[in-house]
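Course assignment 3, question 2. Fill in each field.
Student: A.L.
Task: Predict the tertiary structure for the chain below.
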Amino acid sequence: MKEKLHSLIQNIKKMESLLVAYSGGVDSTFLLRVAKDALGDNVVAATAKSPTYPEREYEQAKMMARELGVKHLTIFTEEHQQPEFFHNPPNRCYYCKRELFAKLRQLAGQEGLSWVADGTNYDDLGDRRPGMLAAAELGIRSPLCEAGLTKDDIRALSRQLGLATWDKPSLACLASRFPYGDEITLEGLSMVAEAEEYLQGLGFKQLRIRQHNNIARIEVAPEEMGRFYDRELCNQVVNKLKAIGYTYVTLDLQGYRTGSMNEVLGASQLYHYSD
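Answer field:
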Protein backbone atom coordinates (compact mmCIF):
# COMPACT_ATOMS: atom_id res chain seq x y z
CA MET A 1 0.00 0.00 0.00
CA LYS A 2 2.92 2.37 0.69
CA GLU A 3 4.19 1.79 -2.83
CA LYS A 4 0.77 2.64 -4.26
CA LEU A 5 0.60 5.83 -2.22
CA HIS A 6 4.08 6.83 -3.38
CA SER A 7 3.07 6.21 -6.98
CA LEU A 8 -0.06 8.34 -6.49
CA ILE A 9 1.90 11.24 -5.04
CA GLN A 10 4.50 11.15 -7.81
CA ASN A 11 1.86 11.01 -10.54
CA ILE A 12 0.02 13.99 -9.05
CA LYS A 13 3.23 16.01 -8.77
CA LYS A 14 3.91 15.40 -12.47
CA MET A 15 0.51 16.92 -13.30
CA GLU A 16 1.67 20.24 -11.78
CA SER A 17 -1.88 21.63 -11.45
CA LEU A 18 -5.19 19.86 -11.06
CA LEU A 19 -8.97 20.27 -10.90
CA VAL A 20 -10.54 17.50 -8.81
CA ALA A 21 -14.11 16.40 -9.55
CA TYR A 22 -15.18 16.48 -5.92
CA SER A 23 -18.28 14.73 -4.60
CA GLY A 24 -17.29 14.68 -0.92
CA GLY A 25 -17.17 10.88 -0.91
CA VAL A 26 -14.42 8.59 0.36
CA ASP A 27 -12.41 8.44 -2.85
CA SER A 28 -12.54 12.05 -4.02
CA THR A 29 -11.85 13.35 -0.51
CA PHE A 30 -8.75 11.19 -0.23
CA LEU A 31 -7.61 12.28 -3.69
CA LEU A 32 -8.20 15.93 -2.81
CA ARG A 33 -6.20 15.66 0.41
CA VAL A 34 -3.24 13.98 -1.30
CA ALA A 35 -3.37 16.46 -4.18
CA LYS A 36 -3.41 19.37 -1.73
CA ASP A 37 -0.36 17.98 0.04
CA ALA A 38 1.44 17.43 -3.27
CA LEU A 39 0.47 20.57 -5.19
CA GLY A 40 -0.54 23.12 -2.57
CA ASP A 41 -2.60 25.93 -4.08
CA ASN A 42 -2.30 24.40 -7.55
CA VAL A 43 -5.24 22.11 -6.81
CA VAL A 44 -8.88 23.20 -6.97
CA ALA A 45 -12.02 21.22 -6.10
CA ALA A 46 -15.21 21.45 -8.16
CA THR A 47 -18.59 20.03 -7.18
CA ALA A 48 -21.56 19.76 -9.52
CA LYS A 49 -25.03 20.81 -8.41
CA SER A 50 -27.92 19.02 -10.06
CA PRO A 51 -31.15 17.22 -9.09
CA THR A 52 -29.20 13.94 -9.13
CA TYR A 53 -26.96 15.05 -6.24
CA PRO A 54 -28.48 15.42 -2.75
CA GLU A 55 -28.19 18.91 -1.29
CA ARG A 56 -26.95 17.43 1.97
CA GLU A 57 -23.96 15.90 0.18
CA TYR A 58 -23.21 19.16 -1.59
CA GLU A 59 -23.08 21.05 1.71
CA GLN A 60 -20.83 18.40 3.23
CA ALA A 61 -18.49 18.60 0.23
CA LYS A 62 -18.22 22.37 0.60
CA MET A 63 -17.45 22.02 4.30
CA MET A 64 -14.80 19.34 3.76
CA ALA A 65 -13.06 21.32 1.01
CA ARG A 66 -12.95 24.29 3.37
CA GLU A 67 -11.46 22.12 6.13
CA LEU A 68 -8.78 20.89 3.73
CA GLY A 69 -7.96 24.46 2.76
CA VAL A 70 -8.73 23.88 -0.91
CA LYS A 71 -10.39 26.40 -3.21
CA HIS A 72 -13.88 25.06 -3.95
CA LEU A 73 -15.96 25.89 -7.01
CA THR A 74 -19.51 24.93 -7.98
CA ILE A 75 -20.73 24.07 -11.45
CA PHE A 76 -24.29 23.43 -12.56
CA THR A 77 -24.94 20.44 -14.79
CA GLU A 78 -28.08 19.89 -16.84
CA GLU A 79 -28.01 16.18 -17.62
CA HIS A 80 -31.62 15.93 -16.44
CA GLN A 81 -32.69 17.95 -19.49
CA GLN A 82 -31.21 15.49 -21.98
CA PRO A 83 -33.45 12.80 -23.56
CA GLU A 84 -30.65 10.28 -22.98
CA PHE A 85 -31.02 10.95 -19.27
CA PHE A 86 -34.74 10.83 -18.63
CA HIS A 87 -35.29 7.94 -21.07
CA ASN A 88 -32.80 6.08 -18.86
CA PRO A 89 -31.03 3.64 -21.22
CA PRO A 90 -28.42 1.21 -19.82
CA ASN A 91 -25.62 3.63 -20.81
CA ARG A 92 -27.29 6.66 -19.18
CA CYS A 93 -24.22 7.21 -17.01
CA TYR A 94 -22.15 7.90 -20.12
CA TYR A 95 -24.26 10.96 -21.00
CA CYS A 96 -24.29 12.22 -17.41
CA LYS A 97 -20.52 11.95 -17.09
CA ARG A 98 -19.92 13.49 -20.48
CA GLU A 99 -21.96 16.52 -19.42
CA LEU A 100 -20.03 16.75 -16.14
CA PHE A 101 -16.54 16.21 -17.55
CA ALA A 102 -17.04 18.61 -20.45
CA LYS A 103 -17.94 21.40 -18.02
CA LEU A 104 -15.04 20.48 -15.74
CA ARG A 105 -12.63 20.63 -18.68
CA GLN A 106 -13.94 24.09 -19.52
CA LEU A 107 -13.58 25.20 -15.90
CA ALA A 108 -10.03 23.84 -15.68
CA GLY A 109 -9.11 25.94 -18.72
CA GLN A 110 -10.61 29.04 -17.15
CA GLU A 111 -8.65 28.42 -13.94
CA GLY A 112 -5.39 27.71 -15.79
CA LEU A 113 -5.19 24.12 -14.53
CA SER A 114 -3.48 21.42 -16.55
CA TRP A 115 -5.59 18.37 -15.70
CA VAL A 116 -8.99 17.22 -14.49
CA ALA A 117 -9.12 14.13 -12.25
CA ASP A 118 -11.90 12.03 -10.76
CA GLY A 119 -12.00 9.59 -7.84
CA THR A 120 -12.32 6.33 -9.78
CA ASN A 121 -10.44 3.60 -7.91
CA TYR A 122 -8.97 0.29 -9.05
CA ASP A 123 -11.98 -1.74 -7.87
CA ASP A 124 -14.21 0.26 -10.20
CA LEU A 125 -12.62 -1.47 -13.19
CA GLY A 126 -14.55 -4.61 -12.24
CA ASP A 127 -17.93 -2.84 -12.18
CA ARG A 128 -20.18 -1.62 -14.97
CA ARG A 129 -19.36 2.07 -15.32
CA PRO A 130 -20.25 3.59 -18.71
CA GLY A 131 -19.00 6.93 -17.42
CA MET A 132 -15.43 5.69 -17.79
CA LEU A 133 -15.81 5.90 -21.56
CA ALA A 134 -16.74 9.58 -21.26
CA ALA A 135 -13.71 10.13 -19.02
CA ALA A 136 -11.41 8.49 -21.57
CA GLU A 137 -12.86 10.50 -24.45
CA LEU A 138 -12.34 13.80 -22.64
CA GLY A 139 -8.91 13.05 -21.20
CA ILE A 140 -9.96 12.88 -17.55
CA ARG A 141 -7.35 11.30 -15.28
CA SER A 142 -8.10 8.78 -12.53
CA PRO A 143 -4.98 8.91 -10.33
CA LEU A 144 -6.29 6.47 -7.69
CA CYS A 145 -6.95 3.86 -10.34
CA GLU A 146 -3.64 4.56 -12.08
CA ALA A 147 -1.83 3.88 -8.78
CA GLY A 148 -3.75 0.61 -8.25
CA LEU A 149 -5.46 1.83 -5.09
CA THR A 150 -8.52 -0.21 -4.08
CA LYS A 151 -11.43 0.95 -1.96
CA ASP A 152 -10.01 -0.82 1.09
CA ASP A 153 -6.63 0.84 0.52
CA ILE A 154 -8.27 4.26 0.30
CA ARG A 155 -10.33 3.76 3.45
CA ALA A 156 -7.26 2.58 5.38
CA LEU A 157 -5.10 5.47 4.17
CA SER A 158 -7.90 7.95 4.80
CA ARG A 159 -8.12 6.72 8.37
CA GLN A 160 -4.36 7.16 8.82
CA LEU A 161 -4.69 10.72 7.52
CA GLY A 162 -7.52 11.43 9.97
CA LEU A 163 -10.10 12.06 7.26
CA ALA A 164 -13.64 11.91 8.63
CA THR A 165 -14.78 10.27 5.38
CA TRP A 166 -12.73 7.10 5.88
CA ASP A 167 -15.83 5.05 6.82
CA LYS A 168 -18.42 7.08 4.93
CA PRO A 169 -20.95 4.90 3.05
CA SER A 170 -20.55 4.65 -0.71
CA LEU A 171 -22.35 7.30 -2.73
CA ALA A 172 -24.00 7.09 -6.14
CA CYS A 173 -26.00 9.36 -8.41
CA LEU A 174 -29.71 9.35 -7.53
CA ALA A 175 -30.49 8.33 -11.11
CA SER A 176 -29.11 4.89 -10.28
CA ARG A 177 -32.24 4.22 -8.20
CA PHE A 178 -34.47 3.73 -11.27
CA PRO A 179 -34.77 0.60 -13.46
CA TYR A 180 -33.37 1.06 -16.96
CA GLY A 181 -36.11 2.11 -19.35
CA ASP A 182 -38.21 3.76 -16.63
CA GLU A 183 -38.42 7.50 -17.16
CA ILE A 184 -36.51 9.55 -14.60
CA THR A 185 -38.39 12.63 -13.44
CA LEU A 186 -37.51 15.48 -11.14
CA GLU A 187 -40.36 14.38 -8.89
CA GLY A 188 -38.97 10.86 -8.70
CA LEU A 189 -35.46 12.11 -7.89
CA SER A 190 -36.90 14.30 -5.13
CA MET A 191 -38.86 11.38 -3.66
CA VAL A 192 -35.79 9.15 -3.57
CA ALA A 193 -33.66 11.88 -1.99
CA GLU A 194 -36.24 12.58 0.72
CA ALA A 195 -36.79 8.89 1.51
CA GLU A 196 -33.06 8.15 1.77
CA GLU A 197 -32.45 11.19 3.96
CA TYR A 198 -35.24 10.02 6.25
CA LEU A 199 -33.72 6.55 6.64
CA GLN A 200 -30.29 8.07 7.23
CA GLY A 201 -31.88 10.11 10.00
CA LEU A 202 -33.02 6.85 11.59
CA GLY A 203 -29.41 5.69 11.73
CA PHE A 204 -29.19 3.48 8.66
CA LYS A 205 -25.78 3.90 7.06
CA GLN A 206 -25.39 2.06 3.75
CA LEU A 207 -28.74 2.16 1.98
CA ARG A 208 -30.58 2.75 -1.26
CA ILE A 209 -34.21 3.42 -2.18
CA ARG A 210 -34.83 1.74 -5.54
CA GLN A 211 -37.94 3.21 -7.13
CA HIS A 212 -40.14 0.89 -9.20
CA ASN A 213 -43.01 3.14 -10.27
CA ASN A 214 -45.05 3.49 -7.04
CA ILE A 215 -42.98 0.93 -5.12
CA ALA A 216 -40.04 1.82 -2.87
CA ARG A 217 -37.62 -1.12 -2.61
CA ILE A 218 -35.38 -0.54 0.40
CA GLU A 219 -31.84 -1.89 0.38
CA VAL A 220 -29.86 -1.70 3.62
CA ALA A 221 -26.68 -3.42 4.72
CA PRO A 222 -27.34 -7.05 5.79
CA GLU A 223 -26.25 -6.32 9.36
CA GLU A 224 -28.92 -3.60 9.61
CA MET A 225 -31.82 -5.60 8.18
CA GLY A 226 -32.73 -7.00 11.60
CA ARG A 227 -33.93 -3.57 12.66
CA PHE A 228 -37.01 -4.11 10.52
CA TYR A 229 -38.19 -6.83 12.93
CA ASP A 230 -39.26 -3.86 15.05
CA ARG A 231 -42.91 -3.42 14.10
CA GLU A 232 -42.99 0.18 15.33
CA LEU A 233 -40.02 1.09 13.16
CA CYS A 234 -41.62 -0.61 10.15
CA ASN A 235 -44.80 1.38 10.64
CA GLN A 236 -42.85 4.63 10.91
CA VAL A 237 -40.95 3.91 7.69
CA VAL A 238 -44.06 2.84 5.79
CA ASN A 239 -46.04 5.86 6.89
CA LYS A 240 -43.25 8.27 6.00
CA LEU A 241 -42.56 6.79 2.58
CA LYS A 242 -46.27 6.72 1.76
CA ALA A 243 -46.46 10.38 2.76
CA ILE A 244 -43.58 11.05 0.34
CA GLY A 245 -45.63 9.48 -2.44
CA TYR A 246 -45.03 5.73 -2.56
CA THR A 247 -47.97 3.31 -2.55
CA TYR A 248 -46.03 0.22 -1.51
CA VAL A 249 -42.89 -0.10 0.64
CA THR A 250 -40.76 -3.25 0.49
CA LEU A 251 -37.50 -4.51 1.99
CA ASP A 252 -35.06 -6.24 -0.36
CA LEU A 253 -34.02 -9.45 1.43
CA GLN A 254 -30.68 -9.53 -0.42
CA GLY A 255 -29.76 -6.27 1.23
CA TYR A 256 -27.65 -3.47 -0.19
CA ARG A 257 -25.34 -4.25 -3.10
CA THR A 258 -23.68 -2.02 -5.63
CA GLY A 259 -25.49 -1.69 -8.96
CA SER A 260 -28.45 -3.92 -8.21
CA MET A 261 -30.28 -2.38 -11.18
CA ASN A 262 -27.67 -4.02 -13.44
CA GLU A 263 -28.86 -7.50 -12.46
CA VAL A 264 -31.46 -7.48 -15.25
CA LEU A 265 -28.87 -6.76 -17.96
CA GLY A 266 -27.28 -9.41 -20.13
CA ALA A 267 -23.51 -9.73 -20.45
CA SER A 268 -23.35 -7.73 -23.69
CA GLN A 269 -25.23 -4.81 -22.13
CA LEU A 270 -23.22 -5.11 -18.92
CA TYR A 271 -19.83 -4.52 -20.49
CA HIS A 272 -20.41 -2.97 -23.90
CA TYR A 273 -20.13 0.59 -22.61
CA SER A 274 -17.31 0.01 -20.14
CA ASP A 275 -13.76 0.97 -20.95
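Instructor remarks: Residues 197 and 239 are 15 Å apart (CA to CA). The radius of gyration is 19 Å.
Grade: pending
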